[in-house]
Every structure is written in C-alpha cells, then in structure tokens.
Automatic annotation (TrEMBL):
Annotated InterPro entries: Calcineurin-like_PHP, Metallo-depent_PP-like
Signal peptide: none
Domain Calcineurin-like phosphoesterase, first and last residues per copy: 5-137
Lineage: Bacteria, Bacillati, Bacillota, Bacilli, Bacillales
Protein known as: Phosphoesterase
C-alpha cells in the first residue's frame, strides 16, 4: 500500500541556508546528497509526497536532476522562493502536480507553505513549512520544515497521531 508524506524547505542549492539555519552540512553539495538519501530512505516509488514549498534555488537542469532522483509521486505547493518560476517550469522539472494555493487534504488538513491563521475554535490542522526551525504552539499547526524532521519526509500517520495526542492532552 502506498504511503503519503509531507516535507518543506529543502532549499536545494542555497548554500547560505546552512548558516542561516545551522544545518549540519559542509556545503550545498553535501546537503543535497544527504537530503536526497534521507528522502529515498523512507519514500518508495509508489508513495505520494506533498512538498510544501521552497524546493530549489538551482537552475532548471540541476533542479530537474534532483527531482528525478527522488522517489514518489511529487506534489509541490509553491513557496515564497518558488514563485519566481511558473507552474509550468515546476512541472517541466518533474513535479507531478503543482499548486499555487493551499490544498485541503482529507477534509481536515490545510497544506500550505506559510502558516495560515487558524482560529482556536477551528478543528482543522495547518500542515506547513516556511518558518524552518521555529515552531507555532498549539494543536492547529504542524511544521514539516526539514529542520524539524532530520531532513526526512514525515508520514501522514505521524501527523495524524500527533494531532490525536494533542487533542487528548487539551
């Protein structure tokens, strides 16, 4: 059975992010190789991955090479650093689907790049990236930025189970 995963903010090719976020890599090439290996260690070819933005700072050829190495059916929700390139550009580099807007998943999870405003009375959960190693408090937010998950995609079950635990604690 295929699994579903979520991840964001790889920033492939962005060497400055190593210092900005204290990433444990010597350079952008090591970061790229490690993040590809961690992705493929959990994601199989038949799995689905929602990438919630800020995928690559590299040119089309190099971005396409990275996307082709990554397992799974890949859906990109555009992040602030992805928006300088068209939806078509991202499809041409190998994403199977590209959305300019947040996606509602399983009628309960809002998938977006940047955290969305979530009223405390709303029962929904916003799965997001953008804020890297920061974290919003509360049961309405689930940050899938690579810094929180050892650069490895997070399974839907991990997110669902975390939400259930939060509900039980409130």
């Amino acid at each position: 059975m295929a699994n579903t995963y979520f991840i964001s903010d790889h920033h492939f090719g962005h060497s400055s992010i190593i210092d900005f976020e204290a990433r444990p890599f010597a350079d952008a090439d090591e970061m790229t190789a490690t993040m590809i290996a961690k992705w493929n260690a959990v994601v199989n070819k038949e799995d689905k991955v929602f990438h919630l933005g800020d995928f690559s700072f590299l040119n089309k050829e190099r971005t396409k090479a990275i996307v082709s190495e990554l397992n799974g059916y890949k859906i990109l929700v555009l992040g602030n650093h992805d928006r300088g390139r068209s939806r078509t550009w991202w499809l041409e580099v190998g994403f199977d689907e590209v959305s300019e807007y947040p996606i509602i998943y399983k009628n309960f999870f809002f998938l977006s790049h940047e955290p969305m405003y979530m009223n405390k009375q709303m029962p929904y959960v916003n799965v997001h990236g953008h804020i890297h190693s920061q974290k919003y408090e509360g049961r309405h937010y689930f940050n899938v930025s690579v810094e929180h998950w050892d650069y490895t995609p997070v399974s839907f079950e991990q997110i669902r189970d975390s939400v259930v635990v939060s509900e039980e604690q409130s």
